[in-house]
């Protein structure tokens, strides 16, 4: 059987709202409009005004309200229509939610999920096309999750909602409609994936490709084509940006001796840069047969014109050529 | 004798879109002596913090509350700990009023393991979770929507609690306040937005920061009162009035407390470049909340000068004892650095230190050679 990422997210929220009356969702257009991207479709009819709440367009205000409710032991899901708008509320996410447990000496848990589509969509230009994995991943106190598949989306969102820490849950609009095969256990009401564990999506022996979210899709496509060229790629789907599963990355590189990172975000201080640091600071460094290569979004604001947008985002061809270089095949 | 009702007149309230509470406040000797003890304790505690800061026992930022005591004590007099309070960084006295001890507060100020946040919060980050005090916020303007969220939880649960979000005349201009007010009004959240107007946001006089200095009217579609914030009884009366309205399901309310801070904005501000010494000493002479309450106690024969003197002597001694006790407390153990980053954090969770070799926890890979 198959499931779209959209249905996986919707069913995860539905399950958790049915399970725990303290879980509620608020955000712009989540109720009557059924969600700007239809992730909350049907929930308002089912759970009513009390638990599915349309907010005005005031991210700082409603993020603050959601966090205050979490201070008081409710379990809010705070939807940003897209993460681009979460910048209006980043102070609350970091200073009010992320640091509260620590600076109160462990007095206040903040069980909240901030979720919504992150990264570039298509044709929406500079202010609506940005990946925030590195921004939020920078901050201790936050957990940062970036699912790729339907299984990821369902298992990680249910885990995020049940987590007592603030979780930034980075979805991707381009993946919402994508269908994935799922096994029966994924549909279980208590199916969860552990936050902080990466998944090896494809095993291989010649090179490790580390990515997350939509980048995994492109990495798998590249791996397929590279296999035909006789290059065996191991593709790691990070699933969680923070806490980062360094062990899985290090072990894979010690096996393949080569690594390429793939992300849609900007290169400077990005996830690939962090993985580079993990490699240099670990025993994996001694196993490298070639320098690490990063495939990232181009270091420019996102342009509108289609040809420029394509050039600004990592494509399968970028991944293939990076892999060929680290394998000295080019 | 302690419970014999006494009626005391307070300065009339200025109203916005509501009727005024009665200016006749009924109290008694026991209550009034209790208020005096709390306010005098707060005054001495803040002066103790001043001395500790000047002797370099307290680091960083330290914002003192002396001059504003009647707001905190009057508010608590009208509430129970089932109601929630959140404030900004001038928070020591709220921590005290929510049930903490001066010794624990001094310990936090000096960064000791015994402090209310284990020495990890400091002056601006004090909390009393069990009594619904939510801090202690260092970001000006963040606490107002957070407070609306506390009210959201009270309404969601139907527990009858009301949330109080305190902010200064400086934070009254933050956009977030208006976002919070808008949603609080739309959703009828039981929240009272309390502007502690101490006349200056840092060094900027209110007329230089606020196009409308009638803060009690700035909810526009939310009713409000302007209150003599130097009178504990006026504050109590207004807070009870506002809380009743909220509990009855009328949604948010705004209170402007007309008050004054004697200290500069923080300990690094002598507070004399943007106001003159005569202004400060004039307020002390004419409106001091602690002296004002003492005068009421004497005027209404609720206490003798000797009783008050004895209370003051006892409080000063208690404060000295608390300071000395906190000074002897240990600094946090170094292992505390890595605790409570996450809740339910596994004891061996890997957390990088200042260098890789000093990291905490364990990993299933080896550090590079």
Q: Which consecutive residue ranges of chain B, at least 5 long each, have pLDDT under 50?
A: none
Strand arrangement across the biggest beta sheet of chain A: 3-2-4-5-7-6-12
CATH third-tier fold name of the largest domain in chain A = Rossmann fold
Strand content of chain B: 5-15%
Strand content of chain A: 15-25%
What is the element string of chain B, with H for helices and E for strands?
Answer: EEEHHEHHHEHEEEHEHEHHH
Distance linking N and C termini of chain A: 41 Å
Q: Write down the overall geometry of chain B.
A: globular
Known CATH architecture of the largest domain in chain A: 3-Layer(aba) Sandwich
Largest sheet, strands/sense/barrel of chain A: 7 strands, mixed
Question: Can you describe this structure?
Answer:
- The complex is a heterodimer of chains A (330) and B (369).
- Helices cover 39% and strands 17% of the residues of chain A.
- The termini of chain A are far apart.
- Chain A is α/β, with parallel strands linked by helices and 330 residues long.
- Chain A folds into two domains: 2-187, Thiamin diphosphate (ThDP)-binding fold, Pyr/PP domains (Rossmann fold, 3-Layer(aba) Sandwich), CATH 3.40.50; 199-326, Rossmann fold, CATH 3.40.50.
- The mean pLDDT of chain A is 98.
- The model of chain B has no long low-confidence stretch (mean pLDDT 97).
- Chain B is globular, with a radius of gyration of 22 Å.
- In chain B, helix 8 (232-247) links the parallel strand 9 and strand 10.
- The longest helix of chain B has 26 residues, at 29-54.
- The N and C termini of chain B lie far apart (79 Å).
- With 369 residues, chain B is of the alpha/beta class.
- Chain B has eleven helices and ten strands.
- In chain B, helix 1 packs antiparallel against helix 10 (289-299) and helix 5 (143-157) runs parallel beside helix 6 (175-186).
- Classes of the chains: A alpha/beta (330), B alpha/beta (369).
- Chains A and B meet through helix 3, helix 4, helix 5, helix 10 and helix 12 of A and helix 5 and helix 6 of B.
């Amino acid at each position: 059987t198959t499931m779209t990422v959209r249905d996986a997210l919707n069913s995860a929220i539905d399950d958790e709202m049915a399970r725990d009356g303290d879980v509620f969702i608020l955000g712009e257009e989540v109720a009557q409009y059924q969600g700007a991207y239809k992730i909350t479709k049907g929930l308002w009819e089912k759970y009513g005004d009390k638990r599915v709440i349309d907010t005005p367009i005031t991210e700082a205000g409603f993020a603050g309200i959601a966090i205050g409710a979490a201070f008081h032991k409710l379990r809010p899901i705070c939807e940003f229509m897209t993460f681009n708008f979460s910048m209006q509320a980043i102070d609350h996410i970091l200073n009010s939610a992320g640091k509260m447990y620590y600076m109160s000496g462990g007095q206040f848990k903040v069980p909240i999920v901030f979720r919504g589509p992150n990264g570039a969509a298509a044709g929406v230009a500079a202010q609506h096309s940005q990946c925030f994995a590195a921004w939020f991943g920078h901050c201790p106190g936050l957990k940062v999750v970036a699912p790729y598949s339907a299984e990821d989306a369902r298992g990680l969102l249910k885990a995020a909602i049940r987590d007592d820490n603030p979780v930034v849950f980075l979805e991707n609009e381009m993946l919402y409609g994508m269908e994935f095969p799922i096994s029966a256990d994924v549909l279980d009401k208590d199916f969860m994936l552990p936050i902080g564990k990466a998944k090896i999506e494809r095993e291989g022996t010649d090179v490790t490709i580390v990515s997350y979210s939509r980048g995994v899709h492109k990495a798998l496509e590249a791996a397929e084509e590279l296999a035909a060229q006789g290059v065996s790629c191991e593709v790691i789907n990070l699933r969680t940006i923070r806490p980062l599963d360094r062990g899985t990355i290090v072990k894979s590189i010690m096996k393949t001796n080569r690594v390429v990172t793939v992300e849609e975000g900007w290169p400077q201080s990005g996830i690939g840069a962090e993985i580079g640091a993990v490699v240099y600071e670990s025993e994996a460094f001694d196993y490298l047969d070639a320098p690490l290569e990063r495939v990232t979004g181009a270091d420019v604001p996102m342009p509108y014109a289609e040809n420029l947008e394509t050039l600004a985002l990592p494509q399968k061809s970028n991944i293939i050529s990076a892999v060929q270089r680290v394998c000295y095949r080019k | 004798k302690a419970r014999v009702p006494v009626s005391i007149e307070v300065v009339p309230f200025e109203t916005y879109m509501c009727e005024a509470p009665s200016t006749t406040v009924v109290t008694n000797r026991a209550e009034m002596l209790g208020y005096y003890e709390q306010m005098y304790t707060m005054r001495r505690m803040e002066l103790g913090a001043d001395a500790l800061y000047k002797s370099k026992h307290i680091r960083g930022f330290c914002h003192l509350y002396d001059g504003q005591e009647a707001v905190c004590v009057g508010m608590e007099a009208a509430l129970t700990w089932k109601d929630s309070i959140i404030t900004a960084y001038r928070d020591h006295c709220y921590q005290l009023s929510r049930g903490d001890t001066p010794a624990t507060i001094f310990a936090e100020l000096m960064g000791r393991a015994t402090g209310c946040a284990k020495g990890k919060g400091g002056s601006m980050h004090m909390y009393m979770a069990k009594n619904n005090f939510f801090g202690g916020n260092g970001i000006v303007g963040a606490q107002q929507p957070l407070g609306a969220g506390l009210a959201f939880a009270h309404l969601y649960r139907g527990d009858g609690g009301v949330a109080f979000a305190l902010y200064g005349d400086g934070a009254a201009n933050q956009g977030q306040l208006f976002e919070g007010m808008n949603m609080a009004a739309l959703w009828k959240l039981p929240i009272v937005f309390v502007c502690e107007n101490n006349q200056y946001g840092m060094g900027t006089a209110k007329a230089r920061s606020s196009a409308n200095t009638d803060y009690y009217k700035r909810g526009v579609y939310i009713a409000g009162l302007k209150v003599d914030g130097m009178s504990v009884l006026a504050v109590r009366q207004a807070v009870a009035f506002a809380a009743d309205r909220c509990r009855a399901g009328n949604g948010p309310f705004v209170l402007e407390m007309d008050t004054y801070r004697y200290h500069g904005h923080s300990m690094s501000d002598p507070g004399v470049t943007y106001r003159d010494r005569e202004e400060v000493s004039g307020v002390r002479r004419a409106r001091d909340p602690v002296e004002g309450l003492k005068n009421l106690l004497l005027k209404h024969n609720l206490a003798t000068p000797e009783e008050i003197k004895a209370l003051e002597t006892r409080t000063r001694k208690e404060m000295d004892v608390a300071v000395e006790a906190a000074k002897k407390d240990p600094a946090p153990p170094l292992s505390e650095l890595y605790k409570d980053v996450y809740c339910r954090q596994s004891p061996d969770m890997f957390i990088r230190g200042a260098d890789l070799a000093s990291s905490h926890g364990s990993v299933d890979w080896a550090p590079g050679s």
